[in-house]
Write a structure and sequence with these properties.
2 helices; mainly alpha; about 55 residues; single chain
């Protein structure tokens, strides 16, 4: 997920698109929102999903 967001940001800024700053802001917000949600999801489900070998 992160490499694809970085690519979108770089392409938008490299081409000098007027929406480059907006794309950067949305990508950063997406990372800031989804990273804690993923960590919380892993914390809540690891006991059910992982078993001892």
């Amino acid at each position: 997920m992160l490499p694809s967001l970085a690519l979108i940001i770089l392409v938008g800024l490299a081409l000098g698109l007027p929406c480059g700053q907006l794309v950067l802001s949305v990508a950063v917000l997406a990372i800031l929102i989804t990273a804690p949600l993923g960590a919380l999801g892993m914390d809540l489900t690891y006991r059910k999903l992982l078993t001892k070998a």
